[in-house]
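Lab notebook, design round three. We kept the backbone fixed and only want residue identities now. Task for the bench partner: fill in a sequence for the structure below.
Input structure tokens:
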């Protein structure tokens, strides 16, 4: 275990390197920070930190920079989440408050996160498997053609056209709509198949084929892979950090183009807890020089998806974590009120 003084030295090195982009020397540390010890003692502490892999010397006779291990300790033990200022909170509220639908919410959130953090922002659409049904609408388009509209508690809307095996009258349609909603509204998508499995049997024989077709379409909508959608923005921000990537920026950009990689990057949104993965903690080789800050968001206690940012390991972790958490909280409030 590192002593409190050496932890303070590490904190100072991380803060200075993130702020100045320059390797940090012992003299600069003692001048900028009230460490209460001489430069010689700081040099000794830095030697111990280097021996234990928390900092490294990029060039001969240069100062030191944090390693992935050093950033990890900084995030785990030394970095509080920086609260946003009142103007920043108002800006988030005003920017997101005008959203008209889920696509607009996600689009605005991506732009806002990219602007606040000056990193690459990624927002996952709410997962259908973790959503509940708000309403199922059935509309008649022709005597044997219907439109099914599924609305989720997160504001997501899915539409499907249905060709019925036989004409289906307005009275039967209203009956099916009422019975269907009475069973599924407010229920988790994963519960719906069991809740509606015996519904066709409650209709007249001539209508059962159409009822079964409607239910099949509804159940297909619940399990379709369209739920694995996300939006990315602010990729151009990476060009500001070209010197932070050891070889070139191309592997990072290529990794960010792969949706499967991004979904794995955000991970399963099982809760709203924040995760920070630094450097080589990211499994994809192209992202080994980046850090990912992600958090779940949702309309209740359980997260329905995640959002986050990707940037270089030389990142303002407290500020980034604060911005990501604040935006997630506001998006959750919007979904709850929508």
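Proposed sequence:
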């Amino acid at each position: 275990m590192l002593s409190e003084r050496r932890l303070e030295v590490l904190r100072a090195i991380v803060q200075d390197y993130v702020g100045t982009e320059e390797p940090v020397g012992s003299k600069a540390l003692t001048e900028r920070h009230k460490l209460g010890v001489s430069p010689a003692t700081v040099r000794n502490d830095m030697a111990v930190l280097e021996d234990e892999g928390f900092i490294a010397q990029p060039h001969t006779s240069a100062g030191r920079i944090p390693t992935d291990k050093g950033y990890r300790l900084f995030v785990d033990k030394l970095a509080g989440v920086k609260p946003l200022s009142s103007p920043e909170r108002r800006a988030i509220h005003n920017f997101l408050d005008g959203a008209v639908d889920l696509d607009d919410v996600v689009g605005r959130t991506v732009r806002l996160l990219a602007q606040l953090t000056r990193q690459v922002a990624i927002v996952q659409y709410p997962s259908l498997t973790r959503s509940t049904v708000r309403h199922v609408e059935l509309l008649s388009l022709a005597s044997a053609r219907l439109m099914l509209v599924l609305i989720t508690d997160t504001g997501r809307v899915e539409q499907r056209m249905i060709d019925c095996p036989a004409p289906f009258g307005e009275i039967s349609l209203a009956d099916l709509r009422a019975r269907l909603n009475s069973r599924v509204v407010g229920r988790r998508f994963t519960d719906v198949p069991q809740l509606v499995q015996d519904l066709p049997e409650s209709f007249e024989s001539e209508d059962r084929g159409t009822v079964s077709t409607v239910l099949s379409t509804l159940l297909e909508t619940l399990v379709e892979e369209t739920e694995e959608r996300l939006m990315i923005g602010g990729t151009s921000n990476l060009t500001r950090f070209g010197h932070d990537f050891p070889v070139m920026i191309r592997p990072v950009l290529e990794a960010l183009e792969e949706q499967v990689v991004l979904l794995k990057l955000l991970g399963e949104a099982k809760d709203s807890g924040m995760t920070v993965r630094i450097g080589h903690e990211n499994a994809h080789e192209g992202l080994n020089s980046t850090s990912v800050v992600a958090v779940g968001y949702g309309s209740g206690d359980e997260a329905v998806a995640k959002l986050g940012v990707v940037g270089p390991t030389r990142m303002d972790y407290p500020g980034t974590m604060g911005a990501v958490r604040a935006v997630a909280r506001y998006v959750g409030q919007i979904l709850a009120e929508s």
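Keep this in mind before ordering anything: The chain has a mean pLDDT of 86.
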